[in-house]
Design goal:
mainly alpha; globular; Growth Hormone, Chain: A
């Protein structure tokens, strides 16, 4: 039985509080990712961990997404979504603090596995919580989510400035500190009632995995987001090797996220179907990785980074819109769990392969990423008709 309390639907104050508190939590959570994503691998290298181990360690979040994460999202759906967010946020902060005390590859790997078991469910749980609020209060997902992207910019810039004035071996404490802010922000999340579900719908929860339309959504998203594996793991390392300083590296990351913020902010005005948005995102990823493989100049690289608004932001907007139309709201946490699990499988394989390919071929690893995105475009293009028909049957429109 959930302990979450009822919130009056017609209360503008409740809607405003929900939006503000969720935006703060998105900000703290993605602020930590902004510190972690560009510079965690730099910290790993600084403490003496080689490229092969870095590739394996970087694959851990993806692995936990399809092992531990579905269990956590299922429990959250059964008991308390807000409670699960608080527990996972607190455990994440503690886990990164412990990682900072470890320098041996296997020790870092072991503690990182435990930490990621709590950390990786945070985003799908937060998205499920957000979509529940979107349905309840009539809000838009994009404007809520953009605060996470804005905080990512702050986190990346802060680490970018710090990497030039403090030893790289201390970057882990910045990551742990921002994670602690996320734990504090989680305590302010507003309770939401659990949506009522029909008995037949509850029994058929696993039917999501037998629905070709739902499978097309999560597989396409996994391929596009997974195609970022080499970028997330080795971009900062390769840019540092090319002589770029920490602030320039952070600036390149920030350019991409600024474009992402624009996409989220404008998303309520998009009129194309969600499926077509995802196809556009996939084709943008193909172009982005093919250009990145050519080791472009800093000026061209800065232009290419703006494509992140399409390859990541548009994929997220399109995927969330498809999920709202095709997943019952009371099953949203489970649907997010399946999405994250599929993404975890694809991204973990891509991350491990990128470590091996990068070690031997450097920037040519991005050809593999481009191929993944091309397959994603094909899958969603073929599935778009079925998804449109299912949306009409569900009464959610054809968009």
């Amino acid at each position: 039985m959930s302990s979450e309390s009822q919130i009056p639907i017609d209360s503008k104050g409740a809607s405003r509080r929900f939006a503000v508190r969720l935006s703060l939590f998105y900000g703290a959570t993605f602020g930590m990712i902004g510190a972690h994503l560009p510079f965690f691998t730099v910290w790993l290298k600084a403490v003496g961990i080689d490229a092969w181990w870095i590739g394996v360690i970087a694959a851990v979040p993806s692995l936990t997404r399809f092992t531990v994460l579905p269990v956590v999202t299922s429990l959250a759906e059964r008991f308390s979504l807000r409670g699960a967010l608080i527990v996972t946020a607190l455990a994440t902060a503690l886990g990164f603090a412990v990682i900072g005390t470890q320098h041996l590859p296997f020790a870092v790997l072991l503690v990182y596995v435990v930490t990621c078991s709590f950390w990786t469910p945070l985003i799908p749980l937060t998205d499920a919580y957000a979509l529940r609020g979107v349905a309840r209060f009539g809000l838009n997902y994009g404007p809520l989510r953009l605060w996470g992207s804005a905080a990512f910019v702050v986190g990346a810039l802060a680490c970018g400035m710090l990497v030039d004035v403090v030893a790289a071996t201390h970057l882990i404490w910045v990551i742990a500190g921002v994670a602690a802010l996320g734990a504090i922000a989680s305590l302010g999340l507003q309770p939401l009632d659990r949506p009522k579900a029909a008995a037949a719908a509850v029994k058929g929860a696993s039917a999501l995995l037998r629905d070709p339309g739902f499978l097309a959504i999560i597989f396409t998203s996994a391929l596009i987001q997974g195609s970022h594996a080499a970028y997330y793991t080795f971009a900062s390392i390769s840019w540092q090797a090319a002589g770029l300083n920490g602030l320039t590296i952070a600036g390149l990351w920030v350019l991409g996220v600024l474009a992402e913020i624009v996409v989220f902010a404008l998303s309520p005005r998009f009129t194309l179907s969600p499926a077509l948005l995802v196809v556009i995102a996939a084709l943008s990823a193909v172009a982005r990785w093919l250009i990145t493989a050519q080791e472009p100049s800093v000026a061209l690289l800065a232009m290419v980074q703006l494509a992140h608004g399409l390859t990541y932001g548009l994929t997220q907007v399109g995927t969330m819109s498809l999920l709202v139309r095709h997943v019952p709201i009371h099953m949203m946490a489970r649907g997010q769990g399946y999405l994250a699990a599929c993404g975890g499988i694809v991204t973990s394989v891509a991350s491990i392969l990128s470590g091996m390919v990068y070690a031997g071929y450097g920037q040519r690893v991005y050809y593999l990423m481009a191929a993944m995105a091309l397959v994603a475009a094909g899958v969603m293009w073929l599935a778009r008709g079925r998804l449109r028909a299912l949306a009409r049957e569900a009464g959610t429109g054809s968009r």
